[in-house]
Description:
- The structure is a single chain.
- Strand 6, helix 5 (152-165) and strand 7 (170-174) form a beta-alpha-beta unit.
- The protein is an alpha/beta fold.
- It is built from 8 helices and 8 strands; from the N terminus they run βαβαβαβαββαβαβαα.
- Helix 2 (48-55) runs parallel beside helix 3.
- The mean pLDDT is 98.
- The N and C termini lie close together (10 Å).
- It has an 8-stranded parallel β-sheet with strand order 1-8-7-6-5-4-3-2.
Amino acid sequence: MSRLAPSILAADFNRLGEQIKELENNGIEMIHVDVMDGIFVPSISFGMPVISSIRKETDLFFDVHLMIEKPERYIKAFAESGADSILVHYEACRDLKNTLLKISDYGKKAGIVVSPESGIKTIYPCLPYADVVLVMTVHPGFGGQKMLEKELQKVRDLCEIRKEKGYKFEIEIDGGVTKDNIQVAIDAGTDTIVAGTAVFKGNIKENIKDLGF
Ligand code: DX5
Ligand code: ZN
């Protein structure tokens, strides 16, 4: 059974609290929180103050996706601001294994993110330390892009190695999900489907239903 994690990057920030309540009222249990630093990716989104502010208003699970250089510098700050999971890019970390261990030490779920240009095999040595692996199905940095469906092969490969080695991580995808391609992603074996535009553009309640949740 897959779950849907709406990405608040596509929310109307003027009504963020209200829209998060609407997600809750429609059965959503997890939100995806995209943090961008303008260096690892060209855009800048928001950071700890926004997360701590919404943390006061909801018990939803916060899946925090750090698109920032050297994320190891900010694990404590995001853990304390109210993240439930902290996902770091393989490409941005100096020492991925230690960064994952640090996240776990704070009692948070530790995740590895893989961009489209990165091969999946490079992260295999760190899989025993991961609670989540997030496969980017667009180039990180912006919402509203088209899904790169060939990236779903990484999901299939991860399912295989997870089974073979008895690992515990969950598999997540992020980017370009629509009601027309979500089933392919679910069939590939994805546990958590992140969707921004497809949830927030138009009517949230109808969109969640159209996506099958
Ligand atoms: C992209 C972000 C995604 C983004 C997804 O860098 O990581 O989480 O918000 O947005 P959509 O669903 O619009 O592609
Ligand atoms: Zn994301």
